[in-house]
Specification:
about 140 residues, single chain, about 35% helix, alpha+beta, 5 helices, 5-stranded antiparallel sheet
């Protein structure tokens, strides 16, 4: 299993999506704005357009980190959650005093679940990397 982190919006992103990616990087004090899990040659991600879904991807556009983990368990979890909608409130929670919707996911939250990382209110790319590499 690999953690896939992206520094920019997708190539076909709208102006608003590009601004949201920049805002996400700024708010999280991170170089990353989006994440997914790679198992084999497939990307498992959640985004506003498609919710939690499986897709092709271009590895060159992502920073990939081998995080170990249980591929079978992650795929089973994906099957159980596939189609979950994007959690706008969860993302807003990084900047506003709101909590996310328990039935929805944002990208970093999905990655944490797939990796078996203990749930935290806000998950960031850096927290995912720290958890994968066994540091507190």
């Amino acid at each position: 299993m690999k953690l896939a982190l992206r520094r920019t919006a997708a190539e076909n992103a709208t102006w608003a999506q590009r601004r949201f990616a920049a805002l996400t990087r700024w708010r999280l004090c991170s170089v990353y704005c989006h994440a997914g899990i790679v198992i084999g040659d497939r990307l498992y991600q959640v985004n506003a357009a498609h919710g939690l879904h499986e897709s092709d991807y271009t590895p060159e556009r992502w920073d990939l980190f081998d995080v170990g983990g249980d591929d079978a368990a992650a795929l089973e979890l994906f099957d159980a959650l596939a189609g979950a909608r994007y959690d706008y409130l969860g993302v807003l929670g990084f900047g506003l005093p709101v909590r996310g919707d328990a039935d929805r996911l944002y990208c970093f939250e999905w990655c944490a679940l797939a990796m078996g990382v203990e749930h935290q209110r806000w998950m960031t790319p850096e927290k995912l990397l720290l958890a994968a590499w066994g540091r507190p």
